[in-house]
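Pilot study result, target chain (359 residues):
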Amino acid sequence: MTREAGKRKGGVGQLLIPLIAIALLVIFNLIRDPSFFSIETKTNNTGNTVLAGNLISIINGASELAILAMGMTLVTAACGGQDISVGAAAAIAGSVFVRIIRGAAPVTGGTVIGAFLACCAVAMLFGSFNGMLVAVFRIQPMIATLILYTCGRSIAYWINGGATPTIDSPITGAIGSFIPGIPVPTPVIIVAVMALLFSLTFRFTTLGLYTQAVGINESSARLNGINVTLIKLVSFIILGICVSVAGSIGVCRLGLINHETLLIDIEMDTILAVAIGGNSLGGGKFKISGSILGAYVIQMLTITLYAMKVSSTDVKAYKAIVIILLVVIGSPVVKRWFTKVIGNMRNARKIRGAAKEGV
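Predicted structure:
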């Protein structure tokens, strides 16, 4: 087997769990309701023809989660731990975005870009703070980010003076819903752009290789001349960029900033998306596409439960049960057992074949 073939085989193997999960959910929904994935066109409130249906709701609703999962994958791979402050940091970024938009009259494209760059800078600053605690002071990532998780939404509250101001602009409305003339939701397009940027970054730089090297064996990476501290810091800064994008999308969807509810509890879903995507939570080898698929698995499960009339208070419990099963199935112990079973079956088949040839 060539090296490229080995890479392709390993990549497919890592995506096996999310692909199987999606396939099972698709089959279940098609049996339950054959029209579940039907897509239709309709006219929205602004008079534009757009796509609608459960499938569109899934890929649209998972946008913020998919973007955060991309950044979380890098942090997990480099540091062997997770950032549990992404929801709070997104609230801070969203508050900065709204504060600048509210201070401008009228709201123009330049204003929106400036507001995004400002919230991006703030999110990167907080990401650098988390990264410094992890990379320089060697604090376990989940403990280090617990600080911002605890106080982040209070900071977001302070930025807008405790209010929940609204933003009413065609530009921000288009970012959170549809661009006139384009039937696909704008957040879906933003996810595709972010995925492309990550792909190009890994293709034309050594960031992906160095991140995996640091996560697999930090000491060996350091001996080979890799700046371990810098790689960990960069992973948190990139996550900060993802946080600012997700926070801005969330604000534009709602048309306001509510520091208490914006992307609430998304931290655990983000970590689960990374795990379901076949990435080791202990660091090392990673696949961004797996985490994106993991985000869609979680959102498809959520939409399925709502379609089955499961109450919102019970959805988390059902999601937990299914996700536990997916994580256990994808665990190293189960994978080793499955590999052993397959190996035994192959050996038994070879023995039977040899016996037939002997006869």
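One observation from the pilot: The chain has two domains: 51-320, 328-359. A full batch analysis is planned for the follow-on phase.
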